[in-house]
Specification:
two-stranded antiparallel ribbon
């Protein structure tokens, strides 16, 4: 990062954001999720390459939506949740004033949503739980948030106007300022009425994408 670029970044950010590879491997961020105690990275090289393709430069991604295809168990959810969603949340929490940066109403929070097309319960048990475990193991996020109590502790933000939510229907995200949405179970393998499920998935996807693009696209990118 040149000194001129660093000066520009520090106008909006508390510090110069790290790149996504550093985010994945450094224990200050999500390294405690993606590396062993010996420092060995557990993420497949193909997923790391994909993350670098999504974020070829720190903070800058040319994509507004990504569709992941492949067999069960190859790491699609881990990649989307503990790399991409985590990095987007990291960038927002580094902003000095997210409302001002995105030109949003100060009365509304910025949302990160986890939607499972089949049931809200699966959304809670799958991606939602995975994300919170990673957040609670990260010094960076714990400095900017806190943990709930109980059998399944969850992270919540205490420093910026950011909220996380999970659900299974478009009605649960309408009217929200959505920065990032993870959608799961879009293969409809567990659904009897496939056509109905496809229509619902399209409704959620279109509603989420419209809200993200209309509120957060900046200079042709999310950031």
């Amino acid at each position: 990062v040149t000194e001129d670029l660093k000066e520009l970044l520090l106008h909006d950010f508390e510090s110069v954001p790290v790149d996504i590879l550093t985010f994945i491997t450094d224990p200050r961020y999500f390294g405690n999720t993606w590396t062993t105690q010996n420092g060995k990275v557990t993420a497949w090289d193909s997923w790391i390459k994909a993350a670098l393709d999504v974020f070829p430069l720190p903070m800058r991604s040319p994509y507004s939506s990504i569709i992941l295809l492949g067999a069960t168990g190859i790491g699609k959810t881990s990649f989307a949740v503990n790399m991409l969603m985590g990095y987007y949340l990291y960038l927002v929490l580094l902003l000095k004033n997210p409302h001002e940066y995105f030109d949003l109403s100060e009365q509304k929070n910025i949302f990160f949503a986890f939607i499972n097309i089949v049931t809200k319960t699966i959304a809670y048990k799958n991606a939602w739980g995975m994300f919170h475990r990673a957040l609670l193991r990260s010094p960076f996020f714990m400095e900017r948030g806190a943990s709930t109590t109980g059998r399944r502790p969850e992270w919540y933000c205490t420093t910026k106007p950011v909220e996380l939510l999970y659900g299974n229907d478009a009605s649960q995200i309408i009217g929200l300022d959505l920065l990032a949405v993870f959608m799961d179970e879009v293969s409809f393998a567990r659904v009897r009425d496939i056509q109905k499920a496809q229509e619902r998935a399209a409704e959620v996807f279109n509603a989420a994408l419209e809200r993200m693009i209309s509120r957060f696209t900046k200079f042709g990118c999310i950031f």
